Amino acid sequence: MEHAGLQRPRATLACNLDTNLLRAAHPLLAAGQVEALEWSFDALFQFPEIPDWFTALIQAYSEEGRLVGHGVFFSLFSGRWSAEQQQWLDRLKALSEVYRFDHVTEHFGFMTGADFHKGAPLGIPFTPQTLQLGRDRLKRISAAAGCPVGLENLAFAYTLDEVKRHGDFLEQLLEPINGFIILDLHNLYCQLHNFRQSAEELLRLMPLHRVREIHISGGSWEPAAGQRNRQIRRDTHDGTVPKAVFDLLEKALPKCPNLKYVVLEQLGGALETPEQQRAFQVDFRTMYRILQHPNHLAGKPTSLNDFQPPAFTLSATPRSDEALHQQQQALSEILENAASLREARTQLSVSPLAGTAWNVEHWEDDMLETARRIAQKWKGGWG
User: Fold this and answer.
1) Distance of alpha carbon 149 from alpha carbon 133, whole angstroms
2) Fewer CB atoms inside 10 A, N or C side of the chain?
3) pTM of this prediction?
4) CA pair distance 33, 136, nearest whole angstrom
């Protein structure tokens, strides 16, 4: 459907090789409501073979130009370049010669943990050094993928100042490759709750002209550190989509002139029962109905940017930052092993991060404790 010369965003499913997820998605696929697929391609790098039926599904959307790739494990801002990152790029390049990705995306941040494939994405200080590091890495993803490249906004932050500066840093980071943003609205929901901000204010701080894709999902609550009756919102992808996130979708749609995909995400581990699968289908159909309605296009300008990357040159050696690497290693060690919030705070005060642009002295207790719990949950790996 088109309205006022604009193509409405495509109702998209985050689809991976997961039995529960595919069982939940089957009625949606059969009904023709899944207009595009987002594939976390690097989640399958560990498997020597992909089943033929799954390859056929991916290929069908690829041939229609309705397949997008979503990376998880590249660790864009790791201070030290690793062999695993080069292998990731090589595999992406090979996949891009088999499948037609309309675009490819990765997460903002770096992965905690010494093992490249174990950890959770956490933020970095917004400095000229990290800006140049991120730009170099994005160019390498762009060269491997041969298509538009984007980044997803983080759900997690240590301070409100970090939240407020995130959008501007993304703009600076993406501009040299004409990159785009995945605006994850559940991530935004986490931040507006955890830092007591309004949706309007957080949307205002994001460069919405760079949004080509939107994510919606559910999550979970956990107790705040030492504060009775306060909870922290976590982006765990293991629940139904809150009404507040659908409300955010309604608010965001007319503000994003270059939006092409809206994606529902949920982990297969949260889709084990028929009831959970039906709830997932209800969420997708709710999203689908919202996108069918022409009202969100009212006043929306004509799309101006296809996010094709310009010509650029790559240095022979990937950029690294040894000081950043040492700081990240120290942070990972503290978060993964500190027995308490107090212990983490004490160790940070004498670590290589103290007195630096990380601003650890001003990290909020609730968010430091949340980071400690995240790191310790994923210390043993994903899943």
Assistant:
1) 16
2) C
3) 0.94
4) 38
Packing angle of the helix pair 128-145, 160-174 (nearest 10 deg) = 50
Torsion-angle region of 149 (φ positive above 0: left; ψ -120 to 50: alpha; else: beta)? beta
pLDDT at 381 (0 to 100): 45
| Pairing, β 67-70 against β 36-39 | parallel
Which ranges in 224-314 belong to alpha helices (H)? Answer: 243-252, 274-292
Cα–Cα dist 137/149, whole Å: 11
User: What's the pLDDT tens digit per position in 105-129?
Assistant: 999 999 865 443 345 678 999 999 9
Residue 75 φ/ψ region, left for φ over 0, alpha for ψ in the -120 to 50 degree band, beta for the rest? left
In contact, 155 and 108? CB cutoff 8 Å: no
Q: Is the pLDDT of residue 301 over 80?
A: no
Q: Strand 110-111 to strand 121-122: parallel, antiparallel, or no bridges (unpaired)?
A: antiparallel
Helix-helix angle 365-377:322-337, to 10 degrees: 90
Tokens at residue 188, please? 């935004």
pLDDT above 90 as % of the chain: 83
Interval 126-160: pLDDT, tens: 999 999 999 999 999 999 999 999 999 999 999 99
